[in-house]
Amino acid sequence: MDATRWLDEREDRAWRGYRRMRRLLDLELARELTQDAGLSEADYDVLSDLSETPQGRLRLRELADRMLWSRSRLSHHLTRMQQRGLVTREECADDARGSIVVLTPAGRQAIESAAPGHVAAVRRHLIDLLTPAEIDALGALTHRVVDHLGGRAPHPRHDLEI
């Protein structure tokens, strides 16, 4: 068995700083999104993913994969969003077990109303705190990690709240 490669002081400081930053940033962005637009982060993710498609439609399976959620968890969340009139579901013509998630006019209005404030919060709490070189570095490192992890199957417990 290989010996554990413990983090040195510099690496540990970076790792713990990243974890703390991620938690605080996620909490603040979620708080502002809920306060300003009445949407959860998951609502926003669903609505933005749908709004970025040509007809505001995605297969439930594809949406679940994008969100790194189980289909069951997404289905339960979509039921709550349907009750609020933000999305609807249609049967999939070529797969009787599949369904299509459709953005409603109310859902489109919700994402269009929420997006400017959310982008302003992302700028205020992250982007505007960085230099152009730091933004480039952040983009490079995040894509490197995503590319590294992208080929892996999601962890069986990936849809637990973190």
Automatic annotation (TrEMBL):
Protein's recorded name: MarR family transcriptional regulator
Top-rank taxon, per record: Bacteria
UniProt GO MF annotations: DNA-binding transcription factor activity
Family annotation (InterPro entries): HTH_MarR-typ, MarR/SlyA-like, WH-like_DNA-bd_sf, WH_DNA-bd_sf
Single GO BP term: response to stress
Ranges of residues in domain HTH marR-type: 11-147
Protein species of origin: Micromonospora inaquosa
Record-linked PANTHER family: MARR FAMILY REGULATORY PROTEIN (PTHR33164:SF99), TRANSCRIPTIONAL REGULATOR, MARR FAMILY (PTHR33164)
Pfam family of the protein (one): MarR_2
